Amino acid sequence: MQKEYNKKYDIDKILKDCQKALSYNFENEKYLLEAITHRTFANENKSDKEKIKYNQRLEFLGDSVLSLVMSDYLFKKYPNYKEGLLSKIKSSLVSSQMLSQLSKDLKLGDFILLGHGEEASGGRQKENILEDLFEAVVGAIYLDSNIDCAKKFIINAYKDKLNNLNIEDSYKDYKTIFQEIIQKKYKINPKYQTVEIENNKFKSEVFVNNKSYAVGFGKSKKESEMETAKNGLDYINFNKEKI
Asked: Does one domain contain both 151 and 33?
């Protein structure tokens, strides 16, 4: 397998170490190899004879598997909660920030195959790359086995987060809270600018009196603006702004 890829990487060792970190052994390692291959690496190493697969299709699949597993877990864990609250809890559990943190916990950034430019710009620590990587790994495990194995991996990866889940946080609407604080102080509403940057990834920035307060990212306009509002609240708390 190693001969097919850039000789800079010891692919066999990477696959072995990655499986150890995941506590999962692949029957077919091609799924894992695809999951840890970033498009920049695939683009730099493509040839007329070979087209290297990268992880965006697996990310798409893993996103759906993750959503199903989390919905099933929360539905059974909290039988008395209404669907609105369950949705908010799930949103916090599958947020960009959460998924990138799970990748960091598993040290998945150590194993991703990156192009030279992305490597040089710190791609192993970028939240959007780490988020996609976690979802791609979920998709790879699902294809290599079944939904039960994927669920086992996901629940184990989330173990500490689920054990320390603060339900009260799920009631919070960061955008509403941020708006109320800004209205109280400045008598105006914050303004959001949101753009789609690539492959259904959105970037938002919030302004108050033409001053940028925070930036956030998400898989939808709503998610990116919510993340931006949360970061705006963190900015206010960090700078101890008096409201």
From this structure: yes
Backbone angles phi, psi at 207, to 5 degrees: -120, 145
* 35 and 97 both lie in a single domain: yes
Residues 92 and 148 in one domain: yes
Binning pLDDT at 50, 70 and 90, where does residue 235 land? Answer: confident
Dump pLDDT digits (tens) for 114-149: 999 999 999 899 989 999 999 999 999 999 999 999
**pTM assigned to the model:** 0.71
Domain that holds residue 21: 2-170
- The SS3 assignment for 85 reads helix
SS3 call for 91? helix
Q: Given 34, 118, 131, 135, which residue is catalytic?
A: 135
Between 126 and 85, the higher pLDDT residue: 126
Counted domains in the chain = 2
Beta bridge partners of 62: none
Q: How far is CA 30 from CA 8, 12, 91, 237, in A?
A: 19, 11, 31, 46
Regarding whether 165 and 178 lie in a shared domain, the answer is no
One domain, residues 108 and 9:
yes
- 59 labelled ligand-binding: yes
DSSP state for residue 124 in the 8-state scheme? G
Which one of the listed residues 63, 131, 223, 225 is annotated catalytic?
Answer: 63
Does the annotation list 135 as a binding residue? yes
Q: Is 63 a catalytic residue?
A: yes
Q: What is the CATH number of the domain that holds 196?
A: 3.30.160.20
Cβ-based neighbour number of residue 92 at 10 Å: 17
